[in-house]
């Protein structure tokens, strides 16, 4: 059988971690009767190599959300005559009529429409939003199977689109990035970060709720820092403005685009991870923090409750006062959680195995 895997977002944050780990563990699996066509952008095609002869690289230099994706990528897929295609992101050629599986990581843009997640003008944002809704509806309706990273996202799909889609939606948990497993802690950072600190790990989109975290942290009187670990982009620049307005430059600092060695240091040495998000499909930083035995203070949203149960200190993400109270409580009574049982549930290796089972079911149906 010929199975395609869309890996065009390999180098992106979030979805890229999912793709990277899916391919890493695919490379270790011997599938005698299957050939996997791995579709990569030109820049990734040159730097990625597989040991497994069943994984064949295909250059597909067509960006997501583009006309070339809808026309040229579509033609390439038809030319390869696949038995099954796996689109690892919601954006896909909507006129592809053959059998496919799609991974929907979350419904945040659909459920949290604010317009603040775009740098474009309002009319262009509205047009992009309508295109997003159309593509997503097509993916949900026409796919042979939908993979989600959690039960929470499956419920969102069923609640929004209807019960009939529940039968073909399969929650498959993710895990700890294989590159973090293999990273060695950057000890040099101990010289730079000598004060006690909390960390936030992720991007700075509005639904991440980092602005409220910053306002809350500005009210903490203890001599502790908040280190924000994430990309250097437009949304980060908006956060910088807020920090400057609150005169918090020394208390709240950025560390942009950390390496895995640096990230390992922060997880191992922070007082706790603070994650104030209002919507997530999974929560990779929480599972990574648990792996390093780093305490977690986070929103009481359904996905975090699904992932962690009662093994974290929760707060209402809409309430600055509650956030302040929980941080102060942690500073007065530092908490430790036992994450052993939690970590057994989450694994990219298990995710890859379950993904192969879904492929098999689709091909045999």
TrEMBL record:
GO terms for molecular function: glycosyltransferase activity. Residues 183-345 form the Glycosyl transferase family domain. Residues 64-177 form the Glycosyltransferase subfamily 4-like N-terminal domain. It comes from the Bacteria. InterPro entries: Glyco_trans_1, Glyco_trans_4-like_N. Signal peptide: none annotated. One of its GO terms (biological process) is lipopolysaccharide biosynthetic process. This is Glycosyl transferase family 1 domain-containing protein. It comes from Candidatus Roizmanbacteria bacterium CG10_big_fil_rev_8_21_14_0_10_36_26.
């Amino acid at each position: 059988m010929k199975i395609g895997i869309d890996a065009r977002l390999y180098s992106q944050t979030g979805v890229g971690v999912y793709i990277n780990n899916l391919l890493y563990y695919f490379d270790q699996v011997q599938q005698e009767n299957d050939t996997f066509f791995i579709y990569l952008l030109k820049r990734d095609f040159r730097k990625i190599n597989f040991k497994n002869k069943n994984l064949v690289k295909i250059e597909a230099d067509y960006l997501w959300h583009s006309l070339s994706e809808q026309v040229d990528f579509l033609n390439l897929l038809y030319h390869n005559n696949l038995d099954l295609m796996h689109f690892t992101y919601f954006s896909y050629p909507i006129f592809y009529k053959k059998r496919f599986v799609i991974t929907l990581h979350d419904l945040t843009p659909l459920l949290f429409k604010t317009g603040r997640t775009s740098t474009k003008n309002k009319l262009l944002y509205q047009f992009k939003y309508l295109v997003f809704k159309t593509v997503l509806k097509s993916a949900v309706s026409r796919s042979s199977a939908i993979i989600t990273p959690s039960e929470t996202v499956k419920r969102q799909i069923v609640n929004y689109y209807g019960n009939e889609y529940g039968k073909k939606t399969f929650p498959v948990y993710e895990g700890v990035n294989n590159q973090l497993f293999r990273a060695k802690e950057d000890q040099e950072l101990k010289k730079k970060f000598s004060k006690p600190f909390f960390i936030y790990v992720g991007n700075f989109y509005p639904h991440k709720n980092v602005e409220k975290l910053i306002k809350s942290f500005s009210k903490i009187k203890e001599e502790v820092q908040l280190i924000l670990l994430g990309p250097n982009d437009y949304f980060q620049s908006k956060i910088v403005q807020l920090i400057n307005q609150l005169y918090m430059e020394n208390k709240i600092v950025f560390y942009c685009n950390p390496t895995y060695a640096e990230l390992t240091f922060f997880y191992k040495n922070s007082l706790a991870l603070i994650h104030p998000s209002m919507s997530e499909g999974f929560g990779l930083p929480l599972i990574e923090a648990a792996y390093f035995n780093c305490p977690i203070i986070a929103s009481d949203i359904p996905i975090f409750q699904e992932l962690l149960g009662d093994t974290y200190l929760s707060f209402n993400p809409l309430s600055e006062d509650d956030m302040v109270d929980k941080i102060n409580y942690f500073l007065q009574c530092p908490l430790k959680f036992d994450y052993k049982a939690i970590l057994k549930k989450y694994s990219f290796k298990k995710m890859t195995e379950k993904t192969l089972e879904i492929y098999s079911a689709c091909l045999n149906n």
